[in-house]
Write a structure and sequence with these properties.
Length: 395
């Protein structure tokens, strides 16, 4: 079943979608359950995607990439997630994460080194922002960057860092000493294995199990001056403002993966209800089943349209805030509803681990937490719509 309105795309975009769809269904989907069961990074999938050029999708052409935008990245991520969520997650950070920040803030030396390596797939990035006391309250981070001679020292703990164990480099958000809240936030580039970075701890999780989350401890980790993308400066809120906006490409990618997982659930459910018989006829003939399918398909297309609107905006180099927040919120909640209904349509088979429905649900559930919980997104959307932004911080 083709549910994507491909007639709205250019020829080049349609070709990109078809290429991603073919790889997802032929190469990624057959191993999706394996990556999930073994909780193993989908290295083979990543290498297939690297050879197909997807790691360099949004890297500027002058650094070896294809120079495409957030919209094209989202087209690809939907297709990949429909085949294998973990495989889509393996390149989400490459197309929508730190490399985009480097393109915006980095020096020419940064771009030549890191963007070239991202494009050829030799360097995988992860973003280190969340901390034990800094989740939804992102500006409560406590990791500090302190001057030390010609360089700096990094101290603090990061947690729930997606892909930490398989990353080669990290974009680490930190702050200047003696600052709080949105004051004095900055960002640095740190390599895996740097002195002062302890062994990365991983935790088992409900879904997205092929791309583990890690806990990172920095203890006087050295940071060279040329690794600082945005120096944290006491008295400046510029870093905090950038921190909020730079997540928008990732949020769009998150929404795209939500759409992809939900689409896989809907397609599998439709195939099942067409062949399943009860009371002497196909269960698709029952009106209650038809209504479920209708609602699922309507919500899926609505989420995709919100996502396409968001991914096509460009405000100061990033997708628009209101559009992105709405797309992620609706897509996250839609995916959970669609996957839940798909389980119900399969009955007990939907509950068995030998069928993919329960995995779809587990994968979808985590997307509404990472990149901004649905509750926080609602607060932010209200601020965008009304112009009244109410701080959640205790005064």
């Amino acid at each position: 079943m083709t549910v994507q309105p491909l007639d709205e795309l250019t020829d080049a975009q349609r070709d990109l979608v078809e290429r991603a769809r073919t790889i997802a269904q032929n190469d990624l989907r057959p191993r999706a359950a394996e990556w999930d069961r073994r909780q193993e990074f989908p290295e083979d999938s990543f290498q297939i995607l690297r050879r197909a050029g997807f790691t360099g999708l949004t890297v500027p052409v002058e650094y070896g990439g294809q120079g495409l935008g957030v919209f094209e990245a989202c087209l690809v991520l939907e297709e990949l997630a429909a085949g294998c969520m973990a495989s889509a997650m393996s390149i989400q950070m490459q197309v929508n994460g730190p490399p985009r920040v480097i393109s915006r803030l980095g020096t020419e030396a940064h771009k030549k080194k890191y963007l070239t390596e991202v494009a050829d797939g030799s360097t995988r990035f992860s973003i280190a922002m969340t901390e034990p006391q800094a989740g939804s309250d992102g500006t409560a981070l406590a990791t500090t960057l302190s001057e030390d001679g010609d360089g700096f020292r990094l101290n603090g703990t990061k947690c729930h860092i997606t892909g930490a164990a398989s990353a080669h480099a990290f974009l680490v958000f930190c702050r200047a000493a003696e600052t709080t809240g949105p004051d004095g936030i900055g960002a640095v580039l740190v390599h895996a294995g740097v002195e002062g970075l302890g062994p990365i701890e991983t935790e088992e999780k409900m879904g997205g199990r092929g791309v583990a989350e890690g806990i990172m401890h920095f203890e006087n980790a050295p940071v060279r001056a040329d690794q600082v993308l945005m120096k944290p400066v006491k008295g400046s809120k510029e870093g905090a403002a950038f921190l909020v906006r730079q997540f928008n490409p990732e949020r769009c990618g998150n929404a795209a993966m939500s759409v992809g997982v939900a689409r896989a659930a809907l397609e599998d459910a439709i195939a099942y209800v067409k062949q399943r018989e009860q009371f002497g006829r196909s269960i698709l003939e029952f009106q209650c089943i038809q209504w479920k399918i209708a609602d699922m398909a309507t919500e899926l297309d609505s989420a995709r349209l919100l996502l396409w609107r968001a991914a096509r905006t460009d405000i100061d180099g990033f997708p628009g805030m209101k559009e992105t927040l709405m797309a992620k919120l609706f897509a996250n909640e839609m995916a959970v509803r669609v996957c839940n209904e798909a389980i119900q349509l399969l009955g007990h088979k939907g509950y068995l681990t030998r069928y993919p429905m329960e995995r779809y649900f587990r994968d979808a559930r985590g997307l509404g937490i990472g990149g901004g919980t649905t509750e926080i997104l609602r607060n932010m959307i209200s601020g965008e719509v009304t112009g009244v932004r109410i701080s959640q911080r205790r005064r």
